[in-house]
């Protein structure tokens, strides 16, 4: 069984074709600048063959045509015919309270995903475009599965997901904490249990997905009891361009002082804050690190804020679970920024956390494993995430039951 995994963005489309007999990635690629002049298509096979070209892609249908052609291409293709693609798995960001697990896509599912667009306007609409474009190019006979970012977090209890605002807004608009990066938190928590040689039902794990967008989850006995992102991915702690949580009065104060509309304020908090806003340099942590090494005071401050906030969330989740057995770092920064991991863990000695600086420094560029010492009361891991594999596995299971 070969599963095509799709992650559609507003102007991009990432894909992987995975052979589920051995869970091997046969090919992967990215369509960039969809609907924008100067489109770029890149495709790479497991054995190193590559195809790169500049091509205009007016919409996601044209992007899927590039994917289709590359998969069966005489030089860089990995299948002889599209009939070898058994099913397609799609990342869908917001499942609301309707989707607590992955589902086979039909017209009713698509209508519900569309209904949820107000909860994730930048994501669900393009996820839906990707699904419809896939139908157009691959045909309606190819089964498609939706795997929701929010689903893994659906086990949160009401005391964690209800916001302390008038309850009528939850009833009218479903305003609540949903959480995101669910497929990543799910993959690394399950992998952590495997590495520890224990069932998930016996473990309390804190998973730290740290990237340009970041979130932390408390996974107690295999179930999420809390997570840092809320109604939207803006909540939580400092990210590349997102502010994370702050006093709500900051919003109203700035709107009044700067005469800003709600849309303008939203743009500031989502696109001009975080590492970029504090440092004034960049949203890319590599640029901040370089500036910090050169002594830039705002770069130093930005990193101090980031580490401080991560420590606060880890500590609060250890309290929420009444203990913690393991802490996991994953995603771009979590997997590659050993200094951040070290600085966070150095502030968790009260929990009995102790990491090996030497081993920690080695865990970059796709390497993963345990970085805590034998004396550490809490085991600490770096685990490269694999959201695509989670999507492929769910797709295989659902299609196999049709």
The fourth-level CATH homologous superfamily of the largest domain is: ATPase, nucleotide binding domain
Low-confidence stretches: none
Give the biggest beta sheet: 8 strands, mixed
- How many β strands by DSSP? 14
The helix content, as a percent range, equals: 25-40%
Question: What tags apply to this protein structure?
Answer:
15 helices; 2 domains; 402 residues; 6-stranded mixed sheet; 19% strand; Nucleotidyltransferase, domain 5; alpha/beta
Model description:
The protein has helices spanning 60-71, 107-115, 124-138, 158-161, 167-173, 182-196, 248-258, 262-271, 274-279, 285-293, 297-320, 331-336, 338-346, 357-362, 387-400, and strands at residues 2-8, 12-19, 24-32, 40-45, 50-54, 85-92, 103-104, 144-148, 204-209, 215-220, 223-227, 326-330, 369-370, 379-382. By secondary structure, the chain is of the alpha/beta class. It has 2 domains: 2-148, Nucleotidyltransferase, domain 5, CATH 3.30.420; 199-387, ATPase, nucleotide binding domain (Nucleotidyltransferase, domain 5, 2-Layer Sandwich), CATH 3.30.420.40. α1 crosses α3 (124-138) and α10 (285-293) packs across α11.
């Amino acid at each position: 069984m070969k599963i095509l995994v799709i992650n559609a963005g507003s102007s991009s489309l990432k894909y992987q074709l995975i052979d589920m007999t051995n869970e091997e990635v046969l090919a992967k690629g990215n369509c960039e600048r969809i609907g924008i002049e100067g489109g770029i298509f890149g495709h790479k096979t497991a054995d190193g063959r590559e195809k790169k070209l500049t091509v205009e892609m007016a919409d996601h249908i044209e992007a899927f045509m590039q994917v289709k052609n590359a998969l069966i291409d005489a030089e860089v293709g990995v299948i002889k015919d599209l009939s070898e693609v058994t099913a397609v798995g799609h990342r869908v960001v917001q499942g609301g309270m309707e989707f607590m697990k992955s589902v086979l896509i039909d017209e009713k599912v698509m209508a519900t995903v569309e209904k949820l667009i107000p909860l994730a306007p930048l994501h669900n609409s393009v996820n839906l475009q990707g699904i419809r474009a896939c139908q157009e190019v691959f045909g309606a006979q190819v089964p498609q599965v939706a795997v929701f970012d929010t689903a893994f977090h659906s086990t949160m209890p009401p005391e964690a997901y209800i916001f302390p605002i008038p309850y009528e807004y939850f009833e009218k608009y479903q305003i609540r904490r949903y959480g995101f990066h669910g497929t990543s938190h799910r993959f690394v928590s399950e992998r952590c249990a495997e590495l520890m040689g224990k069932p998930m039902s016996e473990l309390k794990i804190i998973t730290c997905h740290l990237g340009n967008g970041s979130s932390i989850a408390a996974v107690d006995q295999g179930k999420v009891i809390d997570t840092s992102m809320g109604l939207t991915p803006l909540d939580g702690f400092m990210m590349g361009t997102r502010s994370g949580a702050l006093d709500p009065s900051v919003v109203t104060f700035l709107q009044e002082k700067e005469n800003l509309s709600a849309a303008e304020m939203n743009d500031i908090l989502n696109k001009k804050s975080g590492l970029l806003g504090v440092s004034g340099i960049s949203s890319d942590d590599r640029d901040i690190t370089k500036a910090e090494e050169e002594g830039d005071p705002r770069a130093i401050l930005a990193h101090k804020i980031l580490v401080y906030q991560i420590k606060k969330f880890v500590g609060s989740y250890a309290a929420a679970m009444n203990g913690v057995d393991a802490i996991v770092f994953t995603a771009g920064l979590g997997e590659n920024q050993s200094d951040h991991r070290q600085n966070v863990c150095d502030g968790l000695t009260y929990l009995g956390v102790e990491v090996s600086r030497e081993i920690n420094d080695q865990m970059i560029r796709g390497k993963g494993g345990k970085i805590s010492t034998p004396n550490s009361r809490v085991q600490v891991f770096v685990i490269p995430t694999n959201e695509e594999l989670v999507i492929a596995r769910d797709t295989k299971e659902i299609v196999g039951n049709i």
